[in-house]
Structures are given as C-alpha cells and as structure tokens.
Amino acid sequence: MTDAGEQAMRKAWVILAALTFARMTMGFQFQSVPAVGFALAGEGGMSFAALGALSGAYLLPGIAVALAGGWLAQRVGAARVAFVGLALMTFGGLAGWWITDYQAALFWRGIAGIGAVGLNVMGTKMAADWFEGTSNLPTAMGILVASWPAGIALATLILPFCVNAIGLSATLLIPAILCGFGWLLLACLWQAPQHHPPVTQSATRVRFSGLEWLLVCLAGSIWGIYNVALIGVIAWTPGMLEETGIEAVLAAASTSQIGWAAIFSVAAGGWLATRSRWRDLPALACFLLSAAIVLALPYMGQVAGSFWVMFGVGLVIGPAAATIMTLPIDATRVELRAVAMGIFFALYYAYMGIGPMLFGLLRDFTGFAGAPHLLASCLLLLCVLLWFLFRSLQKSPKDSQPA
C-alpha cells in the first residue's frame, strides 16, 4: 500500500471511530427509557404498557424515514442527513427531558427517533464509502453494527446507578448530552472520501418481481423479529431479576452482560459464517440456542442473574446478525439492492416500534415477570421457520427476474 493509501486508511479508521460513537449514542438513547423504567414507574407512575410505548416510540418513525432516507440523501448528501439526525436526537432528548407531560414526551421521543433513523441508515453508508473495495470492509461494518448493543449495554449499566446518585431528572439529560457530543465529534472529523461510486438512477427503471418482494419482506421480518426478541430480553430481564430478590442496580448490571457479550458475538458472526461449511448454520444455531436459554431464564431464580448465565445469553444471541444482513442482498438483483435495503429497514423499524409495547401489554396482562421472555423465545423460534421459508423460496438471480 502506498503512503497515500496508508494515510487514507488511517483516516478511514478515525472516521469509523467517530461514526461508531455517534451510532452508540443511538443505542444509549433508545435504552434510556427501559434502563430507568423502575424509576419512571415509581416516581412517574407509568404502567408497563406506557413504558413500552415510550420505548417503542423511538423506533416507530423509522417505518417511513427509512424508505425516504435514500431519496433524500441523493439530493442533499448522506453526511447532511446524518448531521441533522444527530441534531434531532440531541434536541428531542433535551425537549423530552424538559417537558414532563407523557403525550409530549412521546412526541419528542419520536422526533429523536426520526433523527436516529437518519443517522443509522446514512452512517452505515458513510462508513461503507470509506472502506468500500478494501479487505477491511467486513471488519469495519462489524464494528459499526456492534455499536448498537454497546450503547444499550452502557445505558443498562450506567443509568440506574445515575438515578440513585443524581436523581431521575438529571439522569434523563445524559443521553441528549452524549448525542450532542457525538455531533461535535463527527463534525470535527468527517470528510468525504476522495473516490467513491457516483449516485445512479438506474434502479428507478427496474421493477421488483413478485418473488423479490416476498423475499425482501421475509428478510426484513426476520431482522425485525430477531431484534425485537433481543431488545425484549435486555429490557425486561432486570425486572424479572428484581422479582427474585436481586437489588435493582445489581439486576441492571447483571443484565448489561448480555449487551457486552453481544458486542463481541455480533462482530464475530460474519467470521463464523465465512468459515462454516454451511453459511446458515451459525444463525440457525443462534436462534435455537437463544430460544432455549431465554425460555429457561424465568425458572432459574437468582441463578439467572449470574455473570455466566447473562454473558452466555449474549454470546448465543448475537452471531445471527451478520448473516441476516446478507439476506436482502441474496433476495434481489444489484440494481434493486438500495431500494431493497430501504424496505428491509422499514420493516425492521415497524417491528421494533410495535414490539416493545406488546411485551409491556403481555407483562401487564399476565402479571408474570417472565412473560416477556416466553414471548421472546417464541419469536426466536419463528425466525427459524421464516428462515427456512426464505431459503425454500429463494432462486437464482436469473430465475427471480421478471420476464
């Protein structure tokens, strides 16, 4: 590699670090509601369903924003969309902290979520532009994707402690401050790569076949359901552990081990898939093992809160992510993949917007602290069924093209 190439690669890693931190604040802000749910339910008097709705409001706007993001970025640039996204996350977080009315909090949570969608989709593109055509691309994308569980784990670990140390009001300000710092860091470090492919309009002249539509929708459903199960486990495990007599902060700290382990297992998933004789094996093993251990958690008592159990959940639940992300690429032709990813992420956000509320409703209806875990286990098994349906319908690219 030439000196210029080495300098460009060093710059790429610095920019990736800034993008990873910015994306980590997204996970941190999302998890800020579940992490302090015990305080919101106590001081704020919220029901579990209300907490679930407030949590899900952060991702619900993604249904529309993900579809529109690519169109907007083509006209104003991906970096501008990402910067506006971080600004909305900061402003929405500040407004939600300042205004205590529940309906207003839902609104500003949604505004912050709109910004998070823009950052998520465009930040991924910005990182890919720097690493495209290099052997470091899979590693870079693995690091970027792992920032989401890292943010969730940090929020789960830190925020309950902060509630006890500085109070609920001051704690709710922390996510907005981190988002603002992420904006400043990225503004100082970002620059577009000197060479990257120009934007084309060819996809607008190509139409999806019926099979491609079905496969993309199946892929998006697998990704959405898988993430709903993962978030459900992380969000509702502290409350389940508290029911066994474990103190709230310790229960949250134990649960954070799931996120810490997921950081590594998500990043390792692609490595496992490329070295497996059957590429789908790590993902399917992940679904089945995760379903089994999540199903068992409510019946383990305080043993469920041990380091090895929580860390083990994170290890087995993470590796599927890398292979799932290849499904929309397998499903469509090259000309349609940008549009396919928009549909893929729109479905993901739809599931993630509705899923947390369903967990809360089930918890309220049953009165059983482990009920969300039973639902999460069923969702992971559903991913296995949808995966086999996807592969059974999948054909070669030529066969999937319309005549």
Strand content of the residues, in percent? under 5%
Order of helices and strands: HHHHHHHHHHHHHHHHHH
Q: Radius of gyration from the CA trace?
A: 21 Å
Distance between the termini: 45 Å
- Work out the helicity level: over 70%
Q: Looking at the structure, what is the overall shape?
A: globular
Say how many strands there are: 0
Describe the biggest sheet?
none
Mean pLDDT: 82
> Number of helix segments?
18
Question: In terms of per-residue confidence, which ranges show pLDDT below 50 for 5 or more consecutive residues?
Answer: 396-403
Structural class: mainly alpha
Features:
mainly alpha; disordered C terminus; single chain; 403 residues
Molecular structure report:
Helices cover 80% and strands 0% of the residues. It is an all-alpha fold. The longest helix has 34 residues, at 210-243.
List the helices and strands and how they pair.
Elements: H1 3-35, H2 37-43, H3 48-56, H4 62-76, H5 78-98, H6 102-131, H7 137-166, H8 168-171, H9 174-189, H10 210-243, H11 248-275, H12 281-296, H13 307-317, H14 320-324, H15 327-331, H16 337-366, H17 371-393, H18 397-400
